[in-house]
Every structure is written in C-alpha cells, then in structure tokens.
C-alpha cells in the first residue's frame, strides 16, 4: 500500500489520534449537538432527540452494495453499513424502515468492527457508513478496533448532507470519501418534505468542509474511489428539488470539476405513495431536463443514470434477510 492509497484513518490510528477524536465526538453527545438540530438532550443518559437515537450504536444491515456509483460499488460491492434513525424526516425516504420505523439492533464496538472486517474479507473495496452522524462516537470506537484488526480499505461517509461543521471537522483525515446529498435549495420545500430548517445553507457549508478535507475524486487503476467528494442530487417530480438552483449553488461554491451523481431513480416510497405530487415516479423527460441542466452548467465529472422511471430495484427491504427486493 502506497501512502497515496493508504486510508486516512490508518495514519491517524498509527499516531494514536483516533481515540482523541472519539472522545471529542463523545463529548458532543451530552448535550447532543452531533447534527445541526442541536437538540441538547443528554444522549449518554438515554435521552432521545429529534432523530430518536439512543446512546448505543444501532445498525440495520451490513452488506456488499452493488447499486452505488461505479467508483463506490466496484465489482464486489461497497461494504455498506446502514445505521438506524435519521436526523431528517423525508416523506419519500426509501430507507424509511430504518430511518422512521427504527428497524435495527444495538451493536457493540466489537461487533461493528467485526462487520467492517467481514465486508473487507468479502472483497468490498470500501466501508460505507450510511446515516452515521448520530452514532459517530461509537462508530469511531469500532473503527479503532477494526484498524487494529487489519482494516485497510477506504472509509465512505454516506450522508443526507445535513451535517454540523464542528462534527465534520473532527472527521478530518478519518473519512476518505464523502458521499453527501444536496437535496434542496428552497427552505420552504426542505421544511415541507424533510422537516429540515435552513437545509440549503447548512448543506452548502457541509459540502465546502467535505471538499476542503477530501478534495476532488481520485480513483485507483480499477476505477475504485480512493478519496474525494461525490455529491448526489436526487431529482424529484414536478421540479420540486429545484435542480437548476441546487446545481448552480454547487458550482458557485465548489466549481465545475466536483463530481456529481445525478439520480433519477425516484420511487414513491413511504408517505410519497398516494401523495398528490410525489405519488408518481420521475418521468424520463423530467430526468432528461435535469441532465441538460448539468451539462449546461458545465459539470464535467460524475454520473447520470439511464433510468428516470419507477425503479424498485433501488429500494431495499430491510425486513428481508437479503435486504433488497
Ligand atoms: S444527532 Fe439526534 S439527538 Fe443529536 S442533535 Fe441531531 S437529531 Fe438531535
């Protein structure tokens, strides 16, 4: 392993610095300000805030995920760990079983480290932490054990983009690949569909911090991501996500060379089913228009999809042993 391909957390582990970061993150649990909601509940005493997360890490699934972007999934899948709970309440959440119905079980640091190492043994090119913000102290404790046990693949932070910059700064050098959403531009729409006050301002600040830490996407000789930032934007029907304004804001903040994954896979899940606007899949024409915006703004790096229709293959069923429909 060259220094260029060595995951950042390994260097910090060798210097004995991960424990310090875990302690600093633990201090942010009481009162809790692990995310921008800053609920102020004492998580160490079992109090629960907006996200409903308790004091111990809760996970719903750990599996090789083949449906992510090519640089993330590679040929063997991304070693994905889905954490229970979420700090957003998106009406259309495709992971609602874990985000809103709180499916999952408590896992110890030892168990979580074992899951990470197991995914690496199965050939996964990275470990991807999905919705991890509210459990970061416990996840870092697991990472320390996993690094000591031989974890060597890059760490992906898969996020809804509603993050506390103070927390992100504590992840500097630990996360190799940031994979955040940029969901909305309109505060009214972010409130209505995700109960997320001030989403756009908070999201842009988070993206800037992630870009500062990870830089542009770098891949290895197989095309697998080694480090960098990939921003996801899911296009919703009826222009709800204000795609042009979101993309323009990304370009203004981060320039045209940032990597964008423009997603057209919207499926009316959860409370979107039967909703007057969200109750239908994105049309191919709507997705084509979104792609045209991406090209018009001059973005050069990233992925578009061939879909734009109701695609159930992207929707996991966390109650099933294999986790996917
Ligand atoms: S992580 Fe949960 S409890 Fe903590 S501030 Fe965010 S929503 Fe509130």
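^ Assign residues to that structure.
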């Amino acid at each position: 392993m060259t220094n260029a391909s060595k995951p950042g957390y390994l260097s910090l582990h060798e210097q004995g610095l991960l424990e310090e970061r875990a302690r600093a993150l633990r201090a942010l649990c009481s009162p809790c300000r692990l995310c921008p909601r800053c609920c102020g509940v004492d998580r160490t005493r079992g109090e629960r805030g907006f996200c409903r997360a308790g004091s111990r890490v809760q996970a719903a699934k750990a599996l090789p995920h083949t449906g992510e972007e090519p640089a993330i999934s590679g040929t063997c899948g991304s070693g994905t760990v889905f954490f229970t709970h979420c700090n957003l309440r998106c009406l259309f959440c495709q992971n609602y079983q874990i985000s809103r119905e709180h499916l999952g079980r408590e896992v110890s640091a030892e168990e979580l480290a074992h899951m990470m190492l197991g995914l690496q043994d199965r050939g996964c090119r990275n470990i991807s932490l999905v919705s991890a913000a509210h459990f970061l102290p416990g996840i870092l404790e697991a990472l320390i054990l996993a690094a000591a046990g031989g974890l060597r693949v890059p760490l992906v932070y898969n996020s809804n983009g509603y993050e506390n910059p103070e927390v992100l700064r504590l992840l500097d050098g630990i996360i190799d690949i940031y994979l955040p959403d940029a969901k909305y531009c309109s505060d009214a729409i972010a409130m209505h569909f995700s109960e997320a006050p001030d989403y756009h301002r908070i999201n842009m600040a988070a993206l800037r911090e992630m870009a500062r830490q990870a830089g542009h996407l770098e891949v290895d000789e197989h095309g697998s991501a080694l480090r960098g930032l990939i921003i996801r934007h899911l296009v919703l029907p009826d222009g709800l996500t204000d795609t042009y304004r979101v993309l323009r804001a990304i370009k203004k903040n981060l320039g045209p060379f940032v990597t964008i994954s423009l997603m057209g896979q919207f499926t009316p899940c959860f409370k979107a089913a039967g909703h007057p606007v969200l109750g239908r899949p994105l049309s191919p024409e709507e997705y084509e228009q979104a792609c045209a915006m991406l090209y018009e703004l001059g973005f050069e790096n990233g992925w578009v999809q061939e879909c734009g229709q109701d695609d159930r293959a992207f929707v996991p069923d966390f109650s099933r042993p294999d986790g996917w429909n």
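The radius of gyration is 18 Å.
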